[in-house]
Amino acid sequence: MRNNPRSPIRGKRDLRLVLPFVVIFLGLVLLSAFSIDLLSAARAFVGGESLWSKGQKAAVIHLMRYAYGGDEEEFLAYQRAIAVPLGDRQARVELARERPDYRKAAEGLLQGGNHPDDIPGMIRLVRYFGRLPAIDRALEIWAHGDDEVATLNQLAFQLHDAVRAGHNSAADLAPLLQGIRETDARVTPLEGAFSSSLGEISRRLRDFLIPGIGIVAASLLFPGVALVLRDVRRERRHSLRLAHLASHDSLTGLFNRIEFERRLSNAIDEAHQNGSTHALMYLDLDQFKVVNDTCGHAGGDELIRQIGALMRAQLRQTDTLARLGGDEFGVLLEHCAAGDDEHLAEAIRNAISSFQFVYRHRTFSLGVSIGVINLDQTVTKVAEALSAADAACYLAKQNGRNRVQVYQLHDDAIQVFHGEMEWVSRVHAALAEERFCLYSQEITPLQNSPGAGRHIELLLRMVDEAGRIVTPMEFIPACERYNLMPMLDRWVIGSAFAELAGRNAAAPRDIAVCSINLCGASLADSSMPAYIQECAAQHGIPLNTICFEITETAAVGNLEQAARFIRDLQSLGCTFALDDFGAGMSSFTYLKHLPAEYIKIDGSFITEMFDLPVNLAVIEAIHRISRATGQMTIAEWVDSDEKLLRLRALGVDYAQGYQIGRPEHFTGRQALSRVASGHNR
After folding, report:
1. Residues in contact with 310: Cβ distance below 8 Å, sequence separation at least 6, in sequence order
2. Which of 5, 25, 218, 631 could bridge across to 626 with cysteines, CB 3.0–4.6 Å?
3. How far apart are CA 383 and CA 487, in angstroms?
4. pTM of structure
């Protein structure tokens, strides 16, 4: 009873002690929620930028394929890809209005591939903090990128209209293609600048919020030491969490690309300063798309998490493992002795190959392709190191997947890869600058006097930047590997038909048969017969004067498809020749299934027909079987009178080679003179 009079006083003291703590605590909760929301929004923009960049690059690739192939599916693929940056543009424009329609802005961000849960935070970051210098700079770069995307989309529809209107020659499309390449070149640095701005925003937010939280936490000293100590520990954990979010991948908990590149930069600097040895791995999962398509994104995410944990278990404590994006990972091996990097890479590959991923009663086996590069003093930049490791990873995939490829600058495979990449770029440039041309070579009859008109074969040549002629053997292998041959075949057909139209008008019966080479990929192109028919109608070319040459190897690669392709074009009047016949292992077996009118005996048999008796026997056997199947024979590489007389005696129908005539210019004289005159200047 004696304590009752003092109870109200004690209650007031307790209230005065607790109330500031409650107020500060509530402020701390709000500040923590606010900081997590801001950092999450910044992280969401990092992911959105990656989707924007991939969509824009994919759109350019589909647009270039459409320009050279005219396939409407490629243009539809372009529209699907460009929809991502166009959706982001809709959101940015709407948020810049004085009274924005937030629903419309959210629809744009959703079209841009952003996760629905991230969109409210992204809108708040732009709307309420857009005037901050770092964010304002990022928005300015975004606006520049949107302007370039709008320009690209305008050029795309101009290109689409031109192709549909039949203005699809290289000369007609060159200005539009040049505009597309220039727009793409302007976008690339903007993507890097926007990514850097996002990194700067994350660092600024972290630098601002962590001290702010620290200050608020320190103010808890006023309510009491015990309460302060308890909450300081809590806020320290929260600060560490914020720092963790800024440098780690949210799905796997591994380091993210920004932190990985920072550590890689430090390792490169250290290698130059004291000669220490490090190594870099670039890893790309094989068959990840199968899992993602079968199990959905939830299954794909679970696989990524498990693979990350599996790889972490194979590495040393000092190694840095990061998720670089999608199903790609990076590993930095600091202070790694020579040879250990490859052993660690093999350990990771073996672990993943042995791993069985089980998801909802489905089991999947995977592999991983790994590129490894030693970070010595020859490596000076982060981008250079990542590019080299990526190239080695690509070679690992090309060589069969699920393997380790060590990058060696002077390694033959690496040199071939870089060489092929260079040829791909040069071929695209030559097409845009009209530096391809055609030569023609005579094919003469041996058994009968020449009839009305000549029989010629067209041969493709490229003119390099210095005006020199480049033979097909230099650029064709790269074009075959990277699927550029159908594009070149279409250029040859269009150019040949245009030239034939002019020659037929000047001398109607001069050329009776014109042979044009087709690659194996063109045989698999279901739209190619329609394209040939369209070009013939456009230029008024009778298709019974056109003979298409296909190699035996290309034909037997898909025998049924090749036979169907031949029959379809034969129904339009075309004839066919099987080129390089006899070089394959089963030439005679396939002969009866391929309804070609001509058989071109492989030149290797002709070259040594007198040196190796078996070659003469093969030539005679090919000719006899061709007679039995109703096909005519053409001997290639005939370079002497003696061979010509012997082939005539054997009954071979036609001959082609330097003894008959060397290749001569057929098209491209203007391009040749233009390049030569430019080089002379």
Report:
1. 351, 352, 355
2. 631
3. 32
4. 0.52
Residue where a domain terminates, one of 346, 381, 409: 409
Mean of the pLDDT values across residues 220-230? 54
Does 231 qualify as catalytic in the annotation?
A: no
| 265-282 pLDDT per residue, tens | 999 999 888 888 899 999
Q: What is the pLDDT of residues 81-124, one digit of tens each?
A: 888 888 888 887 888 888 888 888 888 888 878 888 888 877 87
Interatomic CA distance for residues 494 and 489, integer angstroms: 9
Q: How wide is the angle at C-alpha 64 spanned by C-alphas 63 and 67, nearest 5°? A: 90
Round to whole Å and give the CA distance between 483 and 424. 10
pLDDT digits (tens, 9 = 90+) for 42-90: 777 777 777 877 877 788 888 888 877 788 888 888 888 888 888 888 8
Considering the domain architecture, whether residues 228 and 284 belong to the same structural domain is answered as no
Domain boundary among the residues 388, 409, 430 is at: 409
Q: Which of 173, 172, 169 is nearest to 535 (CA)?
A: 169
Q: Are 216 and 27 in contact (CB under 8 A)?
A: yes
Q: Which of 327, 341, 390, 580 is catalytic?
A: 327
In one-letter notation, the amino acid at residue 297 is: H
- For residue 55, how many other CB atoms are within 10 A of its CB? 21
Based on its alpha-carbon atoms, the radius of gyration of the chain, rounded to whole angstroms, reads 34
The residue range of the domain holding 312 is: 257-409
45 and 100 fall within a common domain: yes
Which CATH number goes with the domain that contains 614?
3.20.20.450
Q: Which helix (H) or strand (E) holds 601?
A: strand 598-601
The number of distinct structural domains making up the chain is 3
**Residue 569 shares a structural domain with residue 654:** yes
Q: How confident is the model at residue 538 (pLDDT cuts 50, 70, 90)?
A: very high
